[in-house]
Amino acid sequence: MNLERLPNEEKLTLCRKYYFGGFAFLPFLWLVNVVWFFKEAFVEPTYTEQLQIKTYVKRSGLGFLLWVAVLTTWITIFQHFRAEWGEVGDYLSFTIPLGIP
Fold first, then answer.
1. Which topology term describes how it sits in the membrane (predicted)?
2. Residue 61: partners with Cβ closer than 8 Å, 6 or more residues away
3. Which site from 14, 33, 51, 67 is most exposed, i.e. has the minimal number of CB atoms within 10 Å?
């Protein structure tokens, strides 16, 4: 998508949609929001909607980093303790590996 062709109001609307879409357990939308709108928020000359876009970009970046931290923590804990959890670990597994690591 070429953001240069969009008017500033539509840029703000699109940025807002991606920001709120990330709350639907879709943190990838926050990453896309940061990548697409970083230049608009921090590099381009000032315009009226830029302050709101900047806020959405900062919050999207923070939300994405938080999701990465939580997901990494969960994966690490699960991989380390799955065998010790017994049946609960097996029920949480998509595939049940054979043996104990």
1. Multi-pass membrane protein
2. 30, 34
3. 51
10 Å CB burial of residue 101 (0-12, 13-18, 19+) is: exposed
Residues 3/40, Cβ–Cβ less than 8 Å: yes
CA–CA gap between residue 84 and residue 68 (Å, rounded): 25
* pTM of the predicted structure, to 2 decimals: 0.82
Other C-beta atoms lying within 10 Å of the C-beta of residue 76: 10
- In angstroms, the CA 33 to CA 58 distance is 10
**Tens of pLDDT, residues 24-75:** 989 999 999 999 999 999 999 999 999 999 999 999 999 999 999 999 999 9
